[in-house]
Backbone:
């Protein structure tokens, strides 16, 4: 079975631009979470979505938003990019919103110039 | 709130040496505990987990025991290999409404030299 997939793999943007990152969960998984991993640090939780509804939100500004589609795939959007948004963005899926173990994708490397 | 503290790295060992990476946590209730490994340029792979006190997670020669009394989940391996070189993350999930939110430590970089 295919694991969690993310696109694109790498992305370069300039300050002030907008970016959309995409994630497809493992087949049958209904929960998707997004994390930001800045170089040299552990991943930081951004959002969890389950059944197209937001279930949790981390301490990130409103420039960050996400949504989940009927097929359980998800998009993370970031507006008005800042240099500090440069990071690896990880998507993780799990079978349900209350399932503790998460399965991570390879990530999207975003560089903001 | 929840937090995870890992021993600072980097850690450099010779092949076949014994490995310990310390991890302590702060959480409400009874979290599940995890160790993830990240190879260069890749995402996170689950290495092992433990869901209740005194549980021992193990995989690929790595072990960690859930110690509630010391709020710790130290990672150990008896004999490391060059292929174990990677970044290791300790993490917890408090479960329930926070199940989809994992809290991670800052990672420990392990380099194993032949």
Residues:
């Amino acid at each position: 079975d295919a694991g969690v997939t993310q696109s694109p793999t790498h992305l370069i943007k300039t300050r002030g631009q907008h970016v959309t990152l995409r994630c497809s969960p493992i087949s049958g998984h209904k929960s998707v979470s997004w994390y930001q991993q800045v170089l040299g640090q552990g991943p930081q939780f951004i959002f969890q979505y389950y059944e197209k509804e937001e279930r949790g939100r981390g301490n990130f500004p409103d420039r960050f938003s996400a949504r989940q589609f009927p097929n359980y795939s998800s998009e993370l959007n970031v507006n008005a990019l800042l240099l500090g948004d440069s990071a690896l963005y990880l998507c993780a899926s799990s079978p349900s919103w209350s399932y503790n173990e998460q399965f991570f994708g390879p990530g999207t490397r975003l560089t903001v110039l | 709130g929840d937090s995870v503290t890992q021993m600072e790295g980097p850690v450099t060992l010779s092949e076949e040496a014994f490995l310990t990476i310390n991890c302590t946590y702060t959480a409400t209730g009874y979290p599940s505990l995890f160790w993830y490994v990240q190879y260069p340029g890749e995402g996170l792979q689950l290495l092992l987990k433990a869901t209740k006190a005194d549980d021992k997670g193990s995989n690929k020669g790595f072990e960690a025991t859930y110690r509630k009394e010391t709020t710790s989940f130290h990672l150990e391996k008896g004999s490391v290999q060059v292929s174990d070189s990677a970044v290791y993350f300790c993490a917890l999930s408090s479960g329930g409404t926070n199940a989809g939110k994992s809290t991670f430590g800052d990672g420990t970089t392990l380099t194993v030299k032949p």
Remarks:
- The interface with chain B takes residues 4, 31, 33, 35, 40-45, 48, 50, 55-56, 58, 90, 92, 94, 97-107 of chain A (CB under 8 Å).
